[in-house]
Design goal:
The protein contains 13 helices and seven strands. It is mainly alpha-helical and 252 residues long.
């Protein structure tokens, strides 16, 4: 009977699958912990054991996923070999990003972590983007990423990245991009993006005007730079997009 009881525990043959899933999950956690240890030992000492001990905790699962994405992004543009990240930035990114399971925003946090990795580990320039990203909603992230990917870009006469033309879209298109049909919420969300200095083609523009429902979602130069960093790229935005100065700009 005792042997029969043992056999009856796994009537549907699930245990081998569950065991393999556990092994796969642990491998994922170990990989994330190892990556964290390579880029920032202080953060690994602070968060590494937590990752291993609490793999089913909501925040720890999000940390593991974010670290895996950051590793992929870093190796896409460079290599993790010999790279370090400022502990202040790593701690802030893990703290903020671990509360997020939305794929789009989680990818942005992962990109900021990847682009924080440098040869000397002293670069803290992503701190300004961390503060901005921590204030952005899922809806705003969708709009901002769409805007940065679809607007035509240029370099100013001084060499700064900027939107070449205004990016104006219809309300129906905005609703699809944001996955939201609440007009008043969309208005608030765009107002907030404008207040953060992320959208607007000209001074005091961005969002809806009071005369129609067309929306100005033109990303500012600051927004485009943030987008590039959130892709995991630490170089200049013009290099990322392959933009060159116009001859007229160079001659003037």
């Amino acid at each position: 009977m005792e042997n029969g009881d043992k056999k009856s525990i796994d009537l549907f043959g699930i245990k081998p699958f569950a065991d393999s899933l556990k092994i796969g999950t642990q491998a994922l956690v170990d990989g994330a912990s190892a990556f964290l240890g390579r880029i920032c030992l202080p953060a690994a000492e602070e968060f590494g054991l937590t990752l291993k001990d609490k793999i089913h905790n909501y925040r720890e699962v999000n940390k593991v996923m974010m670290l895996q994405k950051a590793k992929q992004k870093l190796n896409k543009f460079s290599s993790e070999e010999g790279k370090q990240a400022n502990p202040r930035l790593v701690g802030a990114i893990l703290n903020h990003g671990s509360w997020v399971n939305n794929k789009e925003i989680q990818d942005m946090w992962a990109g900021l972590l990847a682009s924080a990795c440098t040869e000397d580990g002293q670069d803290d320039s992503n701190l300004i983007f961390i503060n901005i990203l921590s204030q952005i909603t899922r809806l705003q992230a969708s709009v901002l990423n769409y805007a940065c990917e679809n607007v035509e870009k240029k370099l100013s006469e001084a060499g700064f990245i900027a939107s070449k033309n205004a990016l104006i879209i219809k309300l129906q298109d905005l609703m699809k991009i944001a996955d939201c049909d609440n007009f008043h919420r969309l208005d608030r969300e765009l107002d907030h993006l404008r207040s953060l200095g992320l959208i607007g083609y000209a001074m005091h523009s961005g969002g809806f005007s009071q005369y129609n429902t067309d929306a100005d979602i033109t990303p500012t130069g600051f927004a485009i730079q943030m987008y590039v960093r959130c892709q995991g790229y630490i170089g200049s935005p013009d290099e990322y997009f392959g933009i060159k100065k116009d001859k007229l700009s160079e001659e003037s």
